[in-house]
Amino acid sequence: MQRTAGKELALAPLQDWGEETENGAVYSVSLRRQRSQRLSPGEGPRDSQAPSPSADAFLHYRTSKVRALRAARLERLVWELVSGDSQQDPSFVPAFLATHRAFVPTDRVLGLLLPPPPPPLPPWVEIKKTEGQDLSFNKNLRAVVSVLGSWLRDHPQDFWDPPAHSNLGSVRTFLGWAAPLGTEALEAEKLLGDFLEEAEREQEEEEQPQAWAGLPETAQTPSPDSREGCLEEQEKLVQEGPELLDFSVDEVAEQLTLMDAELFLRVRPWECLGSVWSQRDRPGAAGIAPTVRATVTQFNTVTGCVLGSVLGAPGLAAPQRAQRLEKWIRIAQRCRELRNFSSLRAILSALQSNPIYRLKSSWGAVSREPLSTFRKLSQIFSDENNHLSSREILSQEEATDGLQEADTPPGSLPSKLPPGPVPYLGTFLTDLVMLDTALPDMLEGDLINFEKRRKEWEILARIQQLQRRCRGYCLSPRPPILATLRAQRQLSEEQSYRISRVIEPPAASCPSSPRVRRRISLTKRLSAKLSRERGSSPGGSPGDPSSPTSSVSPGSPPSSPRTRDPPPRSPPASPGPQSPSTKLPLALTLSCPRIPVVGQQGLEVRVIRVSIDNDHGNLYRSILLTSQDKAPSVVQRALQKHNVAQPWACDYQLFQVLPGDRELLIPDNANVFYAMSPAAPGDFMLRRKEQACHTTSVSPT
């Protein structure tokens, strides 16, 4: 290919070519185009040091084939770890190590990866006869040792298996004879020592009484619907000692950032995988993803502190309560300056919840400047375009760090980068759950879909990168503030509504304020949307509590006559994600990312969430719905997700949950994709047919 000097073809450097199969493994093939400068015929090698394009010079492009493993059996994947070409596919080893626990346990990988120790040579065998074999054998050993070094360094928790830590013992045994003096062997020994110290620390913590362990249980009130009962609840919320808002804005924001950063650093990325995190509520799964659960607890604690401090002060006048709102807005702004998006999201979610948002008199007394700040901060987490704003801001924060690193002159000390950011983990958790829902684990021929694992690894790698940057925070703990935060009494959702109505009765402050809903499982109520209809409008003003996020399309009537009007000078409509609850789930609060469906080009799809109407507190389970799915198949797949016997599928009916405590009955043989309401969230419920007569349904028309 010849071109005039200075002119290039506008072709992509990497082009997809197709697939090829080798030994039962499927590879995706791409063509990489690389440019190489060719000299004119009259120039010699001595002139190459000062090349000057002439009229006779031309550009030469060299095309090479690049292969990336797409699907294979487990044995082939492990073989690729050792024998694969890292230059051809540099992301394979880190992607496998980061995601393997989603489809195979660590001990099985080690069983296939670690070779047995060689038998001792007889004394009469000369070394020269085995020298050539040793070179080949050592080459394979070096590859295995290299993989183990990356594994121990990047994912040490994969070897946590108390009390014996047998997997780490197998690695230590192998490295003891394969590379006894290498850094990998030293890393394994150090890791074992860290594990033993951690076990001793945990045992000491279990023996010592905990000042605060989790969220306190909700106290029972004698007459929950009476004014006296609400006042009694408020009196119980008055705690002895200092309140959290007694401390300065900087002190509170810095301590929240310190706690969030420490918890985020402890997060094990593999626990964020959709196949792992989605199993957290199954029977016997209480110990799944403990580091992610800790971030959820912290998020809910911060949200509860905001609700408790704003609602839990009896006898406050509207201007005094407005001062509390203003201080929480300033704390949120300080969290933004500290690049702590986790507590920022928690504070905004509490301020946007209905028990606080409906307080017209209190919001009316908020000053103009704090209210403007609240509007700007709320736009960060606007749910428009799959929360594009928060994603772009987080990317900009990361890009700023990267530019500072790039601007550092060679040989000079790098300038001090700003610490953080601490991300809102729910963004990554939702994306990973969506990937796990949309892409299959296995492909035809019992092949592991490794292309899915690559997409998951791209998200996990970003989490790891953010964790490294969070180590830059230099904040000192303040025990009085931490103790006050942990001592803050948490309000239940029912208590929040009752106290809010005592502060400002619905008839006086907000005639269209939502009523207290019937008792529903907290986990069900607080599961925010995982999917949103294509092209739907951003969330509207905080409205009816029947849906985790209110959404009214432009020009459409309100979904319920009980949808309230925002109070004067109140936060703007669509400030971000709203919820009527006191605690918002960290994991599932974002809209569904657009994920292509393999092999279904042109097929209309969306992700819906289905729950079962029972008293077991089941969470919604995500299902990929296509335009070809009928009600029986959707019911059967939903029951399978909930671990319910599928032969009972004919006994269930499918309802779509609509705003305003309404439900849309899906006929038994209807196409669910077209029978559902496109303007409502994709939340569905399964109910036994004998119970269907007790609910009010809306005809599909």
Distance between the termini: 63 Å
* Residue share in β-strands: 5-15%
pLDDT average, as an integer? 74
Number of strands: 10
Helix content: 40-55%
Strand order of the largest sheet: 1-2-3-5-4
Q: Please state the CA-atom Rg, rounded to the nearest Å.
A: 30 Å
What is the SS-derived class?
alpha+beta
**How can the largest sheet be summarized?**
5 strands, antiparallel
> Which residues form runs of ≥5 with pLDDT under 50?
1-9, 47-51, 127-136, 210-227, 403-415, 508-602, 691-701
The backbone outline, from C-alpha atoms, is globular
**Tally of DSSP helical segments:** 24
Describe the structure.
- With 701 residues, the protein is α+β, with helices and mostly antiparallel strands.
- The protein has 24 helices and 10 strands.
- A hairpin with a 2-residue loop joins strand 1 (14-22) and strand 2 (25-38).
- The strands form 2 sheets. It has a 5-stranded antiparallel beta sheet.
- Helix 8 (249-266) crosses helix 11 (318-337), helix 11 runs antiparallel to helix 12 and helix 11 packs across helix 15 (368-380).
Short description:
With 701 residues, this protein is an alpha+beta fold.
Keywords:
5-stranded mixed beta sheet, 10 strands, alpha+beta, disordered N terminus, 701 residues, 24 helices, disordered C terminus, 42% helix, 5-stranded antiparallel beta sheet
Which helices and strands occur, and which strands form pairs?
Elements: E1 14-22, E2 25-38, E3 58-72, H1 74-83, H2 92-99, H3 106-113, H4 131-154, H5 166-178, H6 183-207, H7 227-237, H8 249-266, H9 274-277, H10 290-311, H11 318-337, H12 341-351, H13 354-357, H14 360-364, H15 368-380, H16 388-406, H17 426-438, E4 442-443, E5 447-449, H18 450-470, H19 479-487, H20 493-503, H21 506-509, H22 522-525, E6 605-612, E7 621-626, H23 631-641, E8 652-658, E9 662-666, H24 672-675, E10 683-688
Parallel strand pairs: 6-10
Antiparallel strand pairs: 1-2, 2-3, 3-5, 4-5, 6-7, 8-9, 8-10
Helix pairs in contact: 2-4, 2-18, 4-6, 5-6, 7-20, 8-10, 8-11, 10-11, 10-12, 11-12, 11-15, 17-18
